[in-house]
Structure formats: C-alpha cells, structure tokens
Amino acid sequence: KNGVVIVGAGHAGVQAAASLREEGFDGPVVLLGDEKELPYHKPPLSKTFIKDAKAKPQPLRGEVFYSGNAIDFRPGTNVERIDLLARRLELAGGGGLSFDRLILATGSRPRTLPLAGDLDGIFSLRSIADARAIRAMSGDCQDAVILGGGFIGLEIAATLRAGGCNVTVIEAADRLLGRAIAPVIAAHVHKRLESIGVRVLTATTVTRLESQNGHVSAAFISTGERLPARMVIVGIGVVPNVELAEMAGLAIANGIRVDRQMRTSVPEILAIGDAASYPHWFTGMDVRLESVQNATDHAKLAARTILGHQDAYSAVPWFWSDIGDMKLQMVGLTGTSNRHIVSGEPDDNRFSVYHFSGPKLIGIESVNRPADHMIGRKMLGLGFTPTDEMIAGGAPALKAAIA
Ligand code: FAD
C-alpha cells in the first residue's frame, strides 16, 4: 500500500494530513514540502512578524503532531514531476515516491515585476524566508515603496509605517483593494492609511527603478516623480502553482481544476487550497480563492472524498485582513453585488457593508465589527437574507432574527 501523498506543506497540506487521520484513514500518509521549516501560519508574516525582531514563526502544528499521527513529514523535498502512468512522483535530486492517492496543495507564489530585474532591496512576501529578508532590512528602513494596494501590500505598508518608515503605496487602479470590496471600505482604508502618514497614490504606476551598486535607490512613477526607496515591496497578486499538474496533463483553468469533491480530471489526484479552481456552490461560477478558510475547508473535504464520502463542497467563504488599526473581515462572495447598505459609521472606524444580488444577501464586509461578521457567517450558511430594518438594528436584531 502506497497510501496518500500530499505535495505542499502549507495551510492546506497540513490540514489534509490531519483530516485524513481524524476521518479514520489508517494507511500511510506522506507530506512533502519544499520549505525547510516546520509548517507555519502565513497571515502573521505581513502583520506582526516583519516588525518584531524577536518574533518566531508560529507553527501550524507542533512537531509531535506529525510523529504522533504517523504522518511522514519530509521537509525540504521538492517534487519535480508526476508520472501519471506509474502513479509515482519524481523528486528533485533524484529518487521517487509511489502513491495510490495524491493531494496537490502547492499554493501560489507572488507575481513578479519584470522591471525589477535582480536588484537588491526588492522583495515580495510569501514565505518565512521572504519575511526574514524584509525584517532584516526594515530595522533601519527610511523609505519604502510598496507596489500594489491589495491586502498584503496594505498590511505591510501599515506595519512598516508603525516602525517609523516613510511608506508610499503605488496602485495602478483608481482605488485600493481591487473591485470586489465596496468603494466605501476602500476609501476608508485609503483615508486612514494617510492619517498615519502613509502616502497612497492610486491611478499611478512605476515606470523605472534606479539603483546604486546593484541596490535599488529610487522608483520613478508615471507622474514623473522620483521616490527615494531603499526597499521596494511588490504585492501585485499571486499566480497558482499549477506546473506539476499541467505537465501531467491535468485540466487547468486559472488553477488546477477540481470538482465539488476536490477531484482533478484524474480522480485519484485531488487539488486543494490556493492552487485549486472550482465551481463555487455559492455562485455556481468557477473561483480560485486565496484564504486560510478556503485551504482548511478544502483539505477537510478532500480527506472525506478519499475515505469514500460523497459530500460536495459547501463551506461559507470568509477572510480577514489587519491593516493598522482596521480589522477587516469579509464573508461571502460579493462580485455580483448590485446593492449594498452601510451599517455603522466609517468615521468611528467601525462599520459593515451588506451586499445583495437582487433580493439575496451575498456578503458582508466589516471594519472592526466582528459580531456582524460572525452573524454573517451564520446567515449565509442558512441562506437567510435579513430585512433592511434588521440590519439597522445591528447584531442583536440579526441574532434574534436567526435564533
Ligand atoms: P501555501 O500555504 O502557500 O502552501 C503551499 C506549500 O507548497 C508551500 O510551502 C510551497 O512552498 C509548497 N510547494 C509548492 N510547490 C511544491 C513542490 N513542487 N514540491 C514541494 N512543495 C511545494 N489568508 C487569510 O485568510 N487571512 C489573512 O490575513 C492572510 N494573510 C496572508 C498574509 C501573507 C503574507 C500571505 C503570504 C498569505 C496570507 N493569506 C491570508 C493567504 C493564506 O496564507 C493562503 O491562502 C494559504 O496559505 C493557502 O494555503 P495553501 O496550502 O494552498 O498554500
């Protein structure tokens, strides 16, 4: 028996190993990861780790979890190829590993900026190694330029600013945080970042980088301005790690294509987490989400699929981001929103935006209103749409409505 082999030891891969045991799988489980660390939480990297010289990585599970559950965790192992016919993986540096079932949990990697070349002082943030490199330079950071006004870029902007660095955010679109977030939230985040001294430039791009002795020294932007920069952090989105699957001939569509049980076009191979694209029960449309919730719930379902269960993916999507003193929490998928109402006051730094598609509640985005978020998860799980009056009544009224 070759058992289950999991490629990628991030949020999804580690949860898959845990869930296989929790669901009663008693065959061999091998977890392969190309990083050398004990698998760790990624969200703190952009929020706390880079500003605290003493911060340690936060392990997803302690070392005893792997030995205690007979999970053969092999760090520093890079899988190079899937031999589909032989049901075997080829590992970097030689050697191979056979599998009965394979779970691809390869995650995603930051999109790169072609004009960055290979200058020193240019970073992106995905791994603990990236975070250590940023932290090492941010101690005496004077001027940092962040490319990209998405969640990670803005988290890093607020974190570096709190450490005393001069930070400028450059965003090509005319607003922060992409199109999926309500404009009122994007505008609030913009204003609040400016109030702590972060310079935010939208509808602006970087045209050229200047360097001295191989180290970046400034960024020129589309207005012609020269921004001094000892650090440039590129946060312009991620691309899914689909190459292994693609080479093996599995179906790809903005990610490794899976069905509602997380099976790829070859049913013994499953794909989960940031790398997987799937028809979302919530909208019926194909999505590829990048969140801890998505990785965790995929992994739980993949384990059940391997054990022969037939349940289809039905988790409520949610996400959080901490940008300075703003705790943003999102639940649902709001891409098809055609009406929204705001509850609470942006000026108090505490408010929520309820999104509707036609008559139906499809998502809630909150700033420092965790109770709204928690009730939102319940309402969306139940398929319940509150009236405008209930929303105006706040969390107590909503709680009463679904009790
Ligand atoms: P990953 O956690 O990236 O794990 C994939 C692993 O597979 C990696 O270790 C990779 O090196 C390895 N791998 C890839 N290819 C191979 C191969 N061929 N062989 C061996 N190993 C391989 N989400 C939230 O919900 N809230 C947040 O606040 C939040 N903040 C974030 C902050 C940062 C800085 C980052 C980087 C991400 C954040 N996320 C957040 C997103 C969240 O971390 C991801 O959605 C989640 O990690 C996805 O899990 P995954 O297992 O699919 O991928």
Keywords:
3 domains, oxidoreductase, flavoprotein, FAD/NAD(P)-binding domain, alpha/beta, 403 residues, FAD/NAD-linked_Rdtase_dimer_sf, Enolase-like, domain 1, binds flavin-adenine dinucleotide, FAD/NAD-binding_dom, 26 strands
Number of spatially distinct domains: 3
Helix count equals: 11
CATH topology of the largest domain: FAD/NAD(P)-binding domain
State the CATH class of the largest domain: Alpha Beta
Query: Beta-strand level of the residues, as a percent range?
Result: 25-35%
Could you estimate the helical fraction of the residues in percent? Answer: 25-40%
**CATH homologous superfamily title of the largest domain:** FAD/NAD(P)-binding domain
Cofactor: FAD
Protein name: Pyridine nucleotide-disulfide oxidoreductase
InterPro entries: FAD-oxidoreductase/Apoptosis, FAD/NAD-bd_sf, FAD/NAD-binding_dom, FAD/NAD-linked_Rdtase_dimer_sf, Reductase_C
Domain Reductase C-terminal: 318-401
